[in-house]
Amino acid sequence: MILVVEDESRMAQLIQDILEDEGYSVLWARDISSAHQKIQQAMPDLVILDRKLPDADGLELLKELRSQPQTQSLPVLFVSARGKTEDRVLGMRLGGDDYLPKPFSPDELIARAEALLRRSKSQEEKEAVLQSGKLVVDLSQHKVFVRGKQIKLWPKEFELLQMFLECKKRVLRREYLFERVWGIEYPGGTRVVDVTVSNLRKRLGSYGVRIVTVKGYGYQYEDREKR
Q1: pLDDT in tens, 182-210
Q2: 27 and 38 Cβ atoms separated by less than 8 Å
Q3: What's the CATH fold of domain 154-221?
Q4: Residue 177's pLDDT band (cuts 50, 70, 90)
Q5: Can you give the three-state secondary structure of the chain, one letter per residue?
Q6: What are the boundaries of each domain within the chain?
């Protein structure tokens, strides 16, 4: 099921018609408030999200989705008239999975939606092992290996590494990492995130440089070798 969050009824109907012609079930929400209600009633497989909504910027809904465990990995495709480079970059940096500017062709909308749905299904079917090159995280045994050698991590370091590998290329805010790993009732502040990331980088050796600081936002794991 696909949830379309769009305030313009004609555009929402167009998107719905295109997707339903391909056999998808579609729900429509005209604002963030009603989107929350739809998600609580039935978890969608994909959210198609406009930026300009009556009650807030669509980015606010994205932030909320990424801050909740049950919707953290929910695929989000922006379809917006705000198609400037800076708009697209911001949408992706905050956790969007793809960004399609308006106007768009029906074929491109279908292709992008199907790509996100395939990617999401593939992630769900993976075994409980996360990997980046020769960095391997065995979730079932709670072990980390770099080039075949086991690396000992403290529990919080392990949890951070797991989040980075599960959200490759996605910028994770310090506040989000703090809430997910330490919990909002932890007496410290987000400074503990920076300290733990620094220690994690050292323990990972050459793979530590893949945890990149994104100034003003947080951290991002780059799944490639540094040149």
Answers
A1: 875 566 678 899 999 999 999 999 999 99
A2: yes
A3: Arc Repressor Mutant, subunit A (1.10.10)
A4: confident
A5: CEEEECCCHHHHHHHHHHHHHCCCCEEEECCHHHHHHHHHHCCCCEEEECCECCCCEHHHHHHHHHCCHHHCCCCEEEEECCCCHHHHHHHHHCCCCEEEECCCCHHHHHHHHHHHHHHHHHHHHCCCEEEECCEEEECCCCEEEECCEEECCCHHHHHHHHHHHHCCCCCEEHHHHHHHHCCCCCCCCCHHHHHHHHHHHHHHHHHHHHEEEECCCEEEECCCCCC
A6: 2-125, 154-221
> What's the confidence (pLDDT) of residue 132?
92
Q: Which two structure tokens, joined as six digits, stand for 55?
A: 């009650």
| Ramachandran angles phi, psi of 88, nearest 5° | -65, -40
Homologous superfamily of domain range 2-125: Response regulator (3.40.50.2300)
Q: Rg (Cα) of the chain, in Å, rounded?
A: 19
Q: Is the pLDDT of residue 11 over 60?
A: yes
**CA 122 and chain centroid, separation:** 15
